[in-house]
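[Solved] Which block belongs to which protein?

Original post:
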Amino acid sequence: MTLNSSKLALHFSHANSFPAGSYRKFLSYFEADYDVGFLEMLGHNPDYPVSDCWPALIDESVAFIASRYNQPVIAVGHSLGGFVSFMCALRRPDLFRSLVLLDSPIFSRRVSSLLWLGKRLGFIDRITPGRGTRTRRRDWPDEEAAYQHFSGRGMFANFDPECLRDYVTAGTVMSANGVTLKFSPEVEYGIYCGLPHNFPHYRGMLKVPTTFIGSSRSNYVRKADLQSMRRHFGIRLQEVEGGHLFPFENPAMAANAVKAAIHS
């Protein structure tokens, strides 16, 4: 990717287990007006290993943003990507023009305490999506078999067909027996189990204008989180129709919501 100083810079960060290339259709709605950049897969560079509260993932993103763009960025992050973008903005607000968090709730003290307790007592993978990641199927004879496996199944049931195809293309690599998941389930598990429990520590410290766009059918956003985001971080709150993976379900609607947040 090359720098384009005539456009505002938009840095995108992906959700856990979804390489950035999976968002091709969603990101295509920004390419005419923004210099779009991203890290393809967080958590897979051995120089930036996954650990509790993800300090190395934050290091990796800060280093990339500082070197990739020649201006402060509009950071758009989905789920994991929103959390990481938020933490990056706390550390280096000078690198950011604004933040848009896509179903990435900045947890209230109550939720944060539960995450901390889950880590201490060893049940963190029971209160996050981590438990099922290491046993999921990861190999198929070819891309078409992978596509048919995911189509209409579970969290993929409402995917736009093009987005599902993009996920299969970007999310698998050739293997000895066909294709295999590109995003390591072990890394995915580590990311879930390292969900930050320290957000309350940063109350009042956010200096970058931020909008949270939640989804109407999300399983991950609680009323207490919404109240905490508004009260303690000054985050603007919006809601769109869809589930947690709404950028894949209706990418045009999701892109329009992000653009509205950017211009608000």
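(Second protein starts here: sequence line, then its structure tokens.)
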Amino acid sequence: MRVREVICRLIDDSWLQVSQKGSHRQFKHPVKLSKVTVPCKLSDDIPIGTYKNILRQAELEG
């Protein structure tokens, strides 16, 4: 899965990008309390472990 697809999934769930340093983007949700950091360039493939961790932090796994 590409980083761009992960970011689209977060945005579809109302996550907003609040900061970026280099290739690391931080997202915050207006209701959920956690922040999620998405590493890598938009065109990169994201490792499966990182993908699962992002979904867990964003409470999107299901």
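Accepted answer:
You had them paired correctly. Confirming on the second one: The beta strands are 16-21, 24-28, 35-38.
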